[in-house]
TrEMBL record:
Phylogenetic lineage: Bacteria, Bacillati, Actinomycetota, Actinomycetes, Micrococcales
Pfam families the UniProt entry points to: Citrate_synt
Record protein name field: Citrate synthase
Keywords noted in UniProt: Acyltransferase, Transferase, Tricarboxylic acid cycle
Similarity-based family: Belongs to the citrate synthase family.
Native source organism of the sequence: Micrococcoides hystricis
Catalyzed reactions: oxaloacetate + acetyl-CoA + H2O = citrate + CoA + H(+)
Length: 397
């Protein structure tokens, strides 16, 4: 490592801070986290209260506009979103260009980026009307694009949105209904998905959100910036962890390893094995989202007939919470430890897990981009570096 004193002498007045561990790039009034105490609030409201009493759409409004909507405001917001769910017919051809086994995350990011070619009337970052309509278009169309990416991977026909339904109901139907068969929504499952989306809606300056702000700081439009956020979220160290937890649980089950043996492997750092879904850069306490999700996992899995993998997850958690290795390092379950099990019980394939995260995080990305673009203190994101290459030398004659 560098000592700060010698760094300043060598490089002039710059701070060397890989991963921006100690550098605030912005002031923000959107989300508050206290990692030591395990506290998360959106616009001041505790996440536990929002998860219990609010809806995903209301939380989206809260994050983006700063205050909870009145009943009329929420109704208008909902109606506007319903009116924008249709994708341009030509955009449907776009999905045919990808291989059948394409991962839905790059399909989603490509389609979101492509929205700027169809909606050239809403690209000016400094025109509030453009920003407003781009916001509504993204909230309405991202779940539809996500459902189409899923249908494409299944080789099934894509249905048109049914605007008598709200955003979450419509998304479930577009993912799971097939034209020839009746489809009935389960209100408990819709409620559980709505709640999971609330819990993912914002998390201050995480990697994907910081990316959305960085791209937007060059005055790139909202579609381009959100598309970059989707790509950042695709990384296994970020949104991809929910998929990794399920893979871990499946392997433990398939190989018949006992939770005790697996924990020994983790603690001995054999082959770099980690207990996926545990630990967090900011939370050094039980992730407040994981507490709520654990209960939801029990409720939904009880309804859908249980899952042996849930038993394994619970045993691993119980062992970890009582183990000195985890206690000393302050490793607790994070948001991803139980989500995969719920998504699986709902019928989503593993490839869709990170897409569900993206749908949830969308209002946060939009809110943070809008805060960035209207903040007079915003400057184009342009970090400095500490040059370590060759000194000046001459090209050989
Ligand atoms: N299992 C076992 N040991 C762990 C785990 C884990 N899940 N997480 C951290 N540790 C250990 C490390 O080995 C290290 O031990 P050491 O001090 O003996 O070397 C110590 O705890 C500190 O770990 P770091 O990797 O330095 O912590 P960091 O803050 O950089 O990493 C991270 C946080 C990436 C989340 C890490 O805990 C991890 O890899 N967890 C598993 C993957 C995961 O669940 N990611 C989802 C994050 S949440 C999200 O993105 C929504």
């Amino acid at each position: 490592g560098y000592a700060i004193g010698s760094l300043l002498k060598d490089t002039g007045n710059v701070t060397y801070d890989p991963g921006f561990m100690n550098t605030a790039n912005t002031k923000s009034a959107i989300t508050y986290i206290d990692g030591e105490a395990g506290i998360l609030r959106y616009r001041g409201y505790p996440i536990e209260q929002l998860a219990e009493k609010s809806s995903f759409l209301e939380v989206a409004y809260l994050l983006i506009h700063g205050e909870l909507p009145t009943e009329t405001e929420l109704e208008e917001f909902d109606q506007r979103i319903r009116m924008h769910t249709m994708l341009h017919e030509d955009l449907k051809d776009f999905f045919n260009g990808f291989p059948r086994d394409a991962h839905p995350m790059p399909v989603l990011s490509s389609a979101v980026s492509a929205l700027s070619t169809w909606y050239q009337d809403s690209l000016d970052p400094f025109n509030p009307e453009h920003v407003e309509v781009a916001t509504i278009r993204l909230l309405a169309k991202v779940p539809v694009i996500a459902a189409y990416a899923h249908k494409k991977s299944m080789g099934q026909p894509m249905l048109y949105p049914d605007n008598s339904m709200n955003l979450v109901e419509n998304f479930m139907r577009l993912c799971f209904a097939v034209p020839a068969e009746p489809y009935e929504l389960d209100p408990d499952v819709v409620k559980a998905l709505d709640q999971l989306l609330i819990l993912h809606a914002d998390h201050e300056q995480n990697c994907s959100t910081a990316t959305v702000r960085m791209v937007g700081s060059a005055d790139a439009n909202l579609f381009a910036s959100v598309s970059a956020g989707v790509n950042a979220l695709f990384g296994p160290a970020h949104g991809g962890a929910n998929e990794a937890v399920l893979k871990m649980l499946r392997n433990i089950h398939a190989e018949g390893i006992s939770p005790e043996t697996f924990m020994e492997k983790v603690k001995n750092k054999e082959d770099g094995v980690r207990l996926m879904g545990f630990g967090h850069r900011v939370y050094k306490n039980y992730d407040p989202r994981a507490k709520i999700i654990k209960q939801t996992a029990h409720d939904i899995l009880e309804k859908t007939g249980g899952d042996e993998l849930l038993e394994i997850a619970m045993k691993l958690e119980e062992k970890a919470l009582a183990d000195d290795y985890f206690i000393e390092r302050k490793l607790y379950p994070n948001v991803d430890f139980y989500t995969g099990l719920i998504y699986k019980a709902m019928g989503f394939p593993e490839k869709m897990f990170t897409v569900l995260f993206a749908i949830g995080r969308l209002p946060g990305w939009i809110a943070q981009w809008r805060e960035m673009i209207t903040d007079p203190a915003t400057k184009i994101g342009r970090p400095r570096q500490v040059y370590t290459g060759a000194a000046e030398r001459n090209y050989p004659n």
